Amino acid sequence: DAKTTQPPSMDCAEGRAANLPCNHSTISGNEYVYWYRQIHSQGPQYIIHGLKNNETNEMASLIITEDRKSSTLILPHATLRDTAVYYCIVRVGNRDDKIIFGKGTRLHILP
Amino acid sequence: GAVVSQHPSRVICKSGTSVKIECRSLDFQATTMFWYRQFPKKSLMLMATSNEGSKATYEQGVEKDKFLINHASLTLSTLTVTSAHPEDSSFYICSARGTGGLTEAFFGQGTRLTVV
Question: Most A CBs within 10 Å: which of B37, B44, B60, as the mutation test of the A interface?
Fold first, then answer.
């Protein structure tokens, strides 16, 4: 079972920052927060992951609360191509763990 | 990131026939590969995990005799849907994880299977 809770859908205006929340209140100390997205009819794409510090890469920023029970994925300047389902997943992040997908958030970028 | 390629991207087959889907890691060696299926407007459901050179581990409720998985090399895994039926029509996605310190998994582009 997925260990995260996400809103089923969100809208964001093109050019604005998209902030996608995720609750993971039962996260263990050795589990990372991973984000993936799936554009329609494609395989999932890795976005970013973090343990407890905030992370940023060329695609997005990840903000993790101090108690690690929730996080927010930020797409700083959303474009129409960011329309996708975004999945927040907690996992140990070693070579043996499985990636179990929850229902994700369907993000609509509005022109 | 690393590239995982699936083939074919789309396939249509008749009921009762078998169809094979290939998953290749193009620029890294994949010790572990995962197979998922996805129905329309639903999330990905993990079917099985395969490690190179050993038998696949199937998730509960997945028929291992129907969905044959072979991971014979470090760059190739195959999923064969045997005696396909219309209810097997789905989007099948593979994921591959590399060796050593590479813990990230990369996904193929998916295969749309339609059984008529």
Answer: B44
Chain A residues lying within 8 Å of B62, measured CB to CB: none
Q: B69 to chain A, minimum CA–CA distance in Å?
A: 17
Burial bucket for residue A98 (CB in 10 Å: 0-12, 13-18, 19+) = middle
| Number of other CB atoms surrounding residue A18 within 10 Å | 23
Give yes or no for A96 touching B (CB within 8 A): yes
Q: What is the mean pLDDT of chain A?
A: 93
Helix, strand, or coil (residue B23):
strand
A43: nearest CB among B97, B103, B108: B108
- Picking from A21, A39, A35, A42, the residue whose alpha carbon sits closest to that of residue A93 is A35
DSSP, collapsed to helix, strand or coil, labels residue A40 as coil
Please tell me if residue A40 touches chain B, with a CB cutoff of 8 Å.
no
* pLDDT, position B1: 64
**Which two structure tokens, joined as six digits, stand for A3?**
């260990």
* pLDDT, tens digit, 9 for 90 and up, residues A22-70: 999 999 998 999 999 999 989 999 999 999 999 999 999 999 999 999 9
Tell me, what DSSP letter sits at residue A17? P
At B39 the pLDDT is 95
SS3 B87: helix
Identify all chain A residues contacting B112, using CB atoms and an 8 Å cutoff. 41
